[in-house]
From TrEMBL:
Coiled coil: none annotated. This is Integrase catalytic domain-containing protein. SUPFAM superfamilies: Ribonuclease H-like (SSF53098). GO terms for molecular function: nucleic acid binding. GO terms for biological process: DNA integration. It comes from the Bacteria. Residues 1-115 form the Integrase catalytic domain. It comes from Dethiosulfovibrio peptidovorans DSM 11002. InterPro entries: Integrase_cat-core (IPR001584), RNaseH-like_sf (IPR012337), RNaseH_sf (IPR036397), Transposase_IS3/IS150/IS904 (IPR050900). Signal peptide: none annotated.
Length: 165
């Protein structure tokens, strides 16, 4: 599965290595997976950057999954019911859910290169709205409609300048 993902997504390892953030479970620490990763040039990370939690991506998506209003509070009838619900959730998450870290575009839009056009259109719409109704902005700029080249789950924070009272 990992080999297929690296090859199908045409992941190129340029100046920075590709890192798989994994939990500490036995499947993620197996010799077979480690050998495959080494062959592909993928490095392992077994903890969230600067935080001691397990896999941040799976932890994040599990929280989103469990807090969805449609999540069955009484559990699933059987494995097929769980798979069907999860398939619908993943489809929603990737094709409908607009992520704040992606400036409110969907992962699919970002992945397929549609985000710059969507954000440029959004910026134009916001600029026009501000021109027509400047009182709504109270001398504030419009929302940031830029797209980050790289999105980080847990970005480094710049030190705050000391405030003078």
């Amino acid at each position: 599965m990992v080999t297929k993902a690296v090859l199908s997504e045409k992941i190129r390892l340029a100046d920075k290595p590709l890192i798989l953030h994994a939990d500490n479970g036995s499947p993620m620490k197996s010799a077979t997976l480690r050998a495959t990763m080494e062959k592909l040039g993928v490095l392992f990370s077994h903890s969230r950057p600067r935080v001691s939690n397990d896999n941040p991506y799976s932890e994040s998506i599990f929280k989103t999954l469990k807090y969805r209003p449609a999540f069955p509070s009484g559990g699933f009838k059987d494995i097929e019911d769980a798979r069907a619900w999860t398939y619908r959730f993943v489809s929603w998450y990737n094709h409908t859910h607009r992520h704040s870290a992606l400036n409110y575009v969907t992962p699919e839009q970002r992945h397929k290169g549609k985000a710059p056009e969507i954000l440029a259109k959004r910026k134009k719409t916001l600029e026009e709205a501000k021109r027509k109704h400047p009182d709504r902005w109270r001398n504030r700029p419009i929302r940031n409609c830029s797209i980050e080249e790289t999105v980080y789950l847990n970005p480094e924070k710049e030190p705050r300048e000391k405030r003078r009272d």
